[in-house]
Amino acid sequence: MVKAVVCGAAGGIGQPLSLLLKLNPIVTELALYDVVNAVGVAADLSHIASPAQVTGYLASQPDADKAFQGADIVVIPAGVPRKPGMTRDDLFVNAGICNTLANSIAKNAPNAFVLVISNPVNSTVPVFAEAFKKAGTYDPKKLFGVSHLDVVRASTFAATAIGKPGDADKYSIPVVGGHSGATILPLLSQAKPAIPEILNDKEKRDALVNRIQFGGDEVVKAKDGAGSATLSMAQAGVEFTNHVLDAVFGGKKGKIVQSYIDLGAEAGGEGIKKEIGSDLAFFSVNIELGPAGIEKILPIGQIDDAEKALLEAAVKELGPSIEKGVSFQPAPPKL
Ligand SMILES: NC(=O)c1ccc[n+]([C@@H]2O[C@H](COP(=O)([O-])OP(=O)(O)OC[C@H]3O[C@@H](n4cnc5c(N)ncnc54)[C@H](O)[C@@H]3O)[C@@H](O)[C@H]2O)c1
Ligand SMILES: O=C(O)C[C@H](O)C(=O)O
Q1: What residues does the Lactate/malate dehydrogenase C-terminal domain cover (predicted)?
Q2: In the CATH scheme, what is the code of domain 147-328?
Q3: Quick one: average pLDDT of 149-157?
Q4: pTM attached to this predicted model
Q5: Ligand 1 mean position to 198 CA, how many Å?
Q6: Is this complex scored with an ipTM above 0.95?
Q7: Do residues 157 and 184 make contact, with C-beta atoms less than 8 angstroms apart?
Q8: 3-145 has which fold?
Q9: What is the pLDDT confidence band of residue 268, given thresholds at 50, 70 and 90?
């Protein structure tokens, strides 16, 4: 029996993500939570013939805590998306929402795996960590910042740059660092299969790195005020969630993914700090998934000079974003 919760389930990401989770037979209970329309979306999804039993909860309901009770995994695409001209940092208003959700999870599902999609991920993941620490429920091996859309984009954009757009799913490119602009560090030198036609052409390489780092802006611009990536994020989100579900509940060990995590999460974090030459508390790294969540933090490995320069820029920009999340003070409750 596996209970999954989607917070922000009525939103642009939340609805398709909930649909895709409803289709995963590992999930037997799916609770949809939002401040609007969660009950309607749940009624709609509940007609699909798959094992998950769907329930919907509005945050204003007196029994809204039930959404979280007994949850094994909570996926969080709640909060405001970008409009043209905004940076992800401008979405720090979402910190308050994240803190509230973290408190509900700590109270009702202290052992749940928590996957954070809400932006700015570089800051909201530290907000969750701090709230869990205050509640005494923090297990860093169970907290994941979802940066998987960057990995998906890297494959798609690399295949396109090479002139083989139909082969997107054949390219695997690790993306480490953070989830915003210069903090997004695609490791093109580690691409599988190798992409010498890009690596040996500075102009093409710079263009590809830039497209991966600023892929989110493409969608924000194209949607022209109607939000940011939702459908590609739902697909990336479910892909990542399913990897965690497979590792924790499906007995499939050993999957390696990248996620923005607490470097204190498990032996290996200190090694990353040496590799990146900084004691940043959070970074997106290669992790091996297993029954406990983050089973191992794996080295970044060999990177070339161009990537070393990008790493320096990423580390510089990440520090203040992490600090902002760590030092976030929720507004006192209204009396
Ligand atoms: N990590 C990533 O790669 C990535 C990718 C795309 C978008 N995002 C982020 O995901 C978030 C959601 O994006 P979206 O396009 O789905 O936005 P959206 O506005 O369409 O949906 C957000 C949903 O959150 C709900 N919500 C607001 N406050 C809530 C609360 N306290 N509890 C529960 N639900 C609440 C809203 O009612 C809404 O239904 C944004 O912050 C966006 O920037 C992250
Ligand atoms: O770009 C955004 O604001 C949303 C998301 O972080 C993305 O990368 O698409």
Answers
A1: 148-328
A2: 3.90.110.10
A3: 98
A4: 0.98
A5: 35
A6: yes
A7: no
A8: Rossmann fold (3.40.50)
A9: confident
